[in-house]
Amino acid sequence: MDGANYLNIWARIILPLSKPALGAVAILSFMYHYNDFMGPLLYINDNAKYPVSLGLQQFRAPFGGTAWHLLMAASLVTVLPPVIVFFVAQRYFIQGIVISGVKG
Fold first, then answer.
1. Residue by residue, what is the 3-state secondary structure of 20-75?
2. 79 three-class SS
3. CB of 12 closer than 8 Å to CB of 4
4. Mean pLDDT, the chain, as a whole number?
5. Short-list 93, 100, 98, 101, CA closest to 29
6. 3-state secondary structure of 16
7. Rounded to an integer, what is the distance from CA 18 to the centroid of its chain?
8. pLDDT tens profile 30-79
9. What is the CA 56 to chain-centroid distance, rounded?
10. Structure confidence at residue 102 (pLDDT)
11. Which residue, among 103, 83, 102, has the nearest Cα to 93 in the 3D structure?
12. CB under 8 Å to 16, separation ≥6 — which residues?
């Protein structure tokens, strides 16, 4: 790598070594933001812009009139994207956790 500039060193050495850690951070960040409940509840006023977690809360009816079959179907649809993301990126997630662990 004699004569390589900083961008070339970053692209050929640092980025490939940090790919598992970046993948783990990306998965955990996606899970956090996908399941966030209180932040959007505080900041968003329009029901059409609610994320999936708040939309799922709309299926519950007050005073015990909840349609449980619709709530469970919506729960299944809500859980599918994080599960798919996890299984697609599982290799990077496991490598990122193993690399960041204590070595000794």
1. HHHHHHHHHHHHHHHCCCHHHHHHCCCHHHCCHHHHHHCCCCHHHCCCHHHHHHHH
2. helix
3. yes
4. 84
5. 93
6. helix
7. 19
8. 888 988 889 998 999 988 888 888 888 888 887 878 888 988 999 999 99
9. 17
10. 55
11. 83
12. none
In degrees rounded to 5, what are phi and psi of residue 22? -65, -35
- Give whole-number Cα distances, 61 to 4, 38, 65, 71, in Å: 63, 19, 5, 10
Token pair 């990077």 is found at 92
With CA atoms as reference, report the closest residue to 81 among 30, 41, 23: 30
pLDDT score at 89: 80
Burial code of 1-20, b = ≥16 C-beta within 10 A, e = fewer?
eeeeeeeeeeeeeeeeeeeb
Nearest to 91 by CA among 16, 23, 12, 18: 23
Tokens of 34: 């996908």
Token couple for 29? 């960040």
- Of the chain, the percentage scoring pLDDT greater than 70 comes to 88
